[in-house]
Amino acid sequence: MTATLTARWVVLDIEGTLTATSYVHVTLYDYARPRLGPWIDEHPEDPEVVDAVARIKELGGLPADASTVDVVRVLHGWMDADQKIAPLKTLQGLIWQRGYAEGDLTTEFFGDVAPALRSWHESGLRLAVFSSGSVAGQIASFSRTTDGDVTGLFERHFDTVNAGPKREAPSYRAIASALEAEPGDIVFFSDVPAELDGAAADGWQTVGLAREGEPFGDADFGTHRTIRTFDEIKVVPR
After folding, report:
1. Which SUPFAM superfamilies match (predicted)?
2. CATH architecture designation of domain 3-19+107-237
3. d(CA 188, CA 201)
């Protein structure tokens, strides 16, 4: 029996929820990895890049005059460990933005994703994203997908820079405030139980995605409502 929830906002994670984890860890990471150094060297006066590089040196314990090679070595180490560190995500997002714009990249959604997104949007629900990937990367990834350009379906984008860590309740409190919504009017979809715990701690409705073959496909979602595809749930506007 399909469960029904009522809400004003639907907030969605991306990796493992809308796209396969392997798309991020293989396709996107492999695209960004060899381009990090050249991107840094080609944008020496871009404030966003300059700030990211300074933060990388600080967090990586590098001297201020460290070379691009040294910076990239730190970045590759973070990528190998799948660290969700803001300056890494910033640089990756900028690189992916160009990759999507030039047609090198196309986001591959799970088959149930686009129909659900369009159905929710058409019903009057408002859609937003909360992902560890940068806002720039999120928007770029939605601009070119296997189901076309879906950027128009989303009103707001949040990442660990403008909201905070994905496993902590204050981040969800900040998002609810930005959306001008009561926590109970928001439903959050994610494949990571700890992220759902953070949202629930702020009073959000939560739904876990236990997709077959994904890293959290067999995880313990505790008290969170759990589904395997969006076909198993209905969300209607309040």
Report:
1. HAD-like (SSF56784)
2. 3-Layer(aba) Sandwich (3.40)
3. 12
Measured distance CA(97)–CA(49) in Å, rounded: 14
Whether the predicted pLDDT of 27 surpasses 90: yes
Domain boundaries, the chain: 3-19+107-237, 26-102
Tokens of 179: 């959306």
Q: What stretch of H or E contains 225?
A: strand 225-227
Task: Express each pLDDT in 46-57 by its tens digit.
Answer: 999 999 999 999
Pick from 190, 192, 194, 220: nearest CA to 207: 190
> Exposed/middle/buried for 180, CB within 10 Å: 0-12, 13-18, 19+?
exposed
Angle in degrees, 0-180, between the axes of helices 68-80 and 86-101, rounded to the nearest 10:
90
- The two tokens of residue 98 are 């160009």
